[in-house]
Amino acid sequence: MLKLFARAHAYAPLTPGERALLKLLEGLACAALVAALPVVASALSQSSVNWADVARAALAAASVAALLALAKYARAQGDPTLATALDTTAGAIAAKDSAAAPASAAQPMRPPA
């Protein structure tokens, strides 16, 4: 798991499943924060915590996290590979540079007067 985090931090290419797993972990961390809010609110306002409410909030937040991870996995299936995306971007940049090069070479830059 730590290798996956290290690869993601280094912007290494990840499989769709790995990207979905990272999205699931991110969602579950958010779900834990959402589930902790009723506990803190109950603890501050009254002497006992309603654990049924906490469980419902945690289940709802975890369900949303799982659905977001599933959506990420489905969207990532159509993504191009990193090499293809880089080649396409490099080609577009080269085309813009070659189109702009003759115009910039025709007019030399002068220092401001």
Short description:
The chain is mostly helical. It contains 4 helices and no strands.
Describe the secondary-structure layout.
Layout: H1 2-9, H2 16-45, H3 51-76, H4 82-106
Helix pairs in contact: 2-3
String of helices and strands:
HHHH
- State mean pLDDT (0 to 100 scale): 80
List unreliable stretches of 5+ residues.
none
User: What is the general shape?
Assistant: elongated
Biggest beta sheet attributes = none
Q: Helix count, per DSSP?
A: 4
Helical content (DSSP H or I, runs of 4+) = over 70%
| Share of residues in strands | under 5%
Radius of gyration equals 25 Å
Distance between the termini: 61 Å
User: Structural class of the helices, strands and pairings?
Assistant: mainly alpha
The counted number of beta strands is 0
Description:
This protein is mainly α and 113 residues long. It has a domain at 2-79. Helix content is 79%, strand content 0%. It has 4 helices and no strands. It has helices spanning 2-9, 16-45, 51-76, 82-106. Helix 2 (16-45) packs antiparallel against helix 3. It is elongated. It starts with a helix and ends in a 7-residue tail after the last helix.
